[in-house]
């Protein structure tokens, strides 16, 4: 088969370097088309008096982003109800993935609003700090909703996490064991 060369740089035209948006008879490679477009744009800018953009350093860029974000927030206040619903949805998903019931079989609590994720071997705070760093006051940057997102993103790891209700979790933390079985309610 006859080979064709780019009429600008002379490179042999293959399927990989041919400009796909041009007809096969236009013998010019992709790179040359791109360079030409760049030159055209530069000339055009010069003509219109548009100065080339100054390259920002990473710090400057971040600062600019921050200002822009604040400006945006002024005109677009966050829809808190929606944000809350979003995080609520993730929380529900996580709780369902962990079985939706308190891990203490004596308890059997299923109301999702009072179920929490428990670190089986303890060290929950340390673990959160490890994942996200800590604030100047020494607290974890990872709050509840972030933690639930993390669990979801990591495929709901079961090795060190289980579901406990607040009661069982607090009792376990305070005296090292689950609450005593609920006394049945009797009259008198
Ligand atoms: Zn070329
Ligand atoms: Zn419980």
Describe this structure in words.
- This protein has 6 helices and 2 strands.
- It folds into 2 domains: 1-51, no CATH class; 80-175, no CATH class.
- The chain is elongated.
- It has a two-stranded antiparallel sheet.
- The model has no long low-confidence stretch (mean pLDDT 85).
- The protein is mainly alpha-helical.
- Bound molecules: zinc ion (2 copies).
- The site of one zinc ion (ZN) has 8 residues, from β2 and α6.
- Residues 102, 104, 107, 109, 164-165, 167-168 line the site of one zinc ion.
Question: Quick gist of this model?
Answer:
By secondary structure, the chain is mostly helical. It contains six helices and two strands; from the N terminus they run αααβααβα.
Taking Cα atoms only, what radius of gyration do you get, to the nearest Å?
30 Å
Total count of strands:
2
Mean pLDDT over all positions: 85
How would the global form be characterised? elongated
* Biggest sheet features: 2 strands, antiparallel
Helix content: 40-55%
């Amino acid at each position: 088969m006859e080979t064709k060369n780019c009429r600008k740089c002379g490179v042999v035209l293959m399927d990989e370097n041919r400009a796909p948006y041009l007809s096969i008879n236009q013998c010019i490679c992709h790179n040359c088309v791109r360079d030409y477009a760049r030159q055209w744009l530069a000339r055009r800018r010069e003509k219109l008096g548009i100065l080339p953009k100054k390259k920002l350093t990473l710090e400057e860029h971040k600062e600019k982003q921050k200002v822009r974000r604040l400006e945006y927030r002024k005109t677009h206040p966050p829809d808190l109800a929606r944000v809350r619903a979003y995080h609520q949805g993730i929380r529900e998903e996580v709780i369902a993935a962990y079985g939706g019931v308190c891990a203490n079989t004596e308890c059997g609590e299923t109301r999702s609003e009072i179920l929490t994720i428990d670190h089986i071997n303890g060290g929950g705070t340390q673990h959160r700090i490890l994942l996200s760093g800590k604030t100047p006051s020494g607290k974890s940057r990872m709050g509840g909703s972030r933690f639930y997102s993390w669990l979801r993103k990591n495929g709901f790891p079961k090795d060190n996490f289980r579901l406990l209700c607040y009661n069982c979790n607090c009792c376990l933390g305070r005296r090292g064991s689950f609450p005593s079985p609920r006394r049945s309610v009797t009259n008198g």
